[in-house]
C-alpha cells in the first residue's frame, strides 16, 4: 500500500513561483457581485437575476404582470425636529467637570418622602402621644407588604 494516496492538510513554506503575483487579473468579488456585473445590471438588467434587497424595506410590490408598483405609504419618512436655536451640543466634551454624587441611601429616601410630612404635622400639632399622625397620608397608611410591592413596580424610582 502506498502512503502517497493519503489525503492530508499541509502548509508549504516554500514559494512555488518566485516573484510577485499579478492580482489585477483576478476578479475579486465582493458580496454582491463584481464591478463589471454591477455596471451591466445598471445598464441592462437581467430579469433572471433577482435584485438583492437584504436589509432594505420594500417600497412597493410586484404585481402578476411582473411590474413593480410603488406604494407612497411604504416609503420611509424621517421626522427630524428643527434644532435651530438649540443651545445643546451634539457631544459631551472630555473637559467637563466630573460629577461626584454620593450613594442614595434609605435615610435620603426617608428625608425626601416622609420627613416633610412629619415636620409639618409636628408644627401643626397633628400627632398623637405616640408620635403617629392623626391624618395619615396614603404612604403612611400602607402596610409593609403593600409598600414592598409598590417599591418593586415599574417607575417607582421616579419621584
UniProtKB/TrEMBL annotation:
Record-linked InterPro entries: Ribosomal_mL41
Stretches of Basic and acidic residues bias are at: 40-51
Tell whether Repeat is among the UniProt keywords.
no
Q: Which UniProt keywords apply?
A: Mitochondrion, Ribonucleoprotein, Ribosomal protein, Transit peptide
GO BP, sorted A to Z: translation
Q: Name one GO molecular function term.
A: structural constituent of ribosome
Name the major location: mitochondrion
Q: Where is this region: Disordered?
A: 35-55, 124-159
Provide the family line.
Belongs to the mitochondrion-specific ribosomal protein mL41 family.
UniProt protein name: 39S ribosomal protein L41, mitochondrial
Amino acid at each position: 500500500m502506498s502512503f502517497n494516496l493519503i489525503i492530508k492538510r499541509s502548509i508549504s513554506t516554500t514559494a512555488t513561483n518566485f516573484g510577485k503575483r499579478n492580482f489585477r487579473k483576478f476578479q475579486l468579488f465582493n458580496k454582491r457581485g463584481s464591478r463589471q456585473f454591477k455596471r451591466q445590471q445598471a445598464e441592462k438588467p437581467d430579469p433572471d437575476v433577482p435584485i438583492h434587497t437584504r436589509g432594505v424595506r420594500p417600497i412597493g410590490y410586484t404585481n402578476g404582470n411582473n411590474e413593480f408598483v410603488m406604494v407612497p405609504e411604504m416609503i420611509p419618512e424621517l421626522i427630524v425636529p428643527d434644532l435651530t436655536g438649540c443651545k445643546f451640543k451634539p457631544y459631551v466634551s472630555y473637559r467637563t467637570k466630573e460629577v461626584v454624587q454620593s450613594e442614595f441611601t434609605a435615610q435620603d429616601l426617608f428625608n425626601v418622602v416622609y420627613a416633610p410630612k412629619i415636620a409639618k404635622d409636628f408644627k401643626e400639632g397633628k400627632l398623637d402621644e405616640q408620635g403617629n399622625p392623626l391624618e395619615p397620608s396614603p404612604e403612611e397608611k400602607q402596610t409593609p407588604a403593600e409598600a414592598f410591592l409598590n417599591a418593586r413596580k415599574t417607575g417607582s424610582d421616579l419621584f
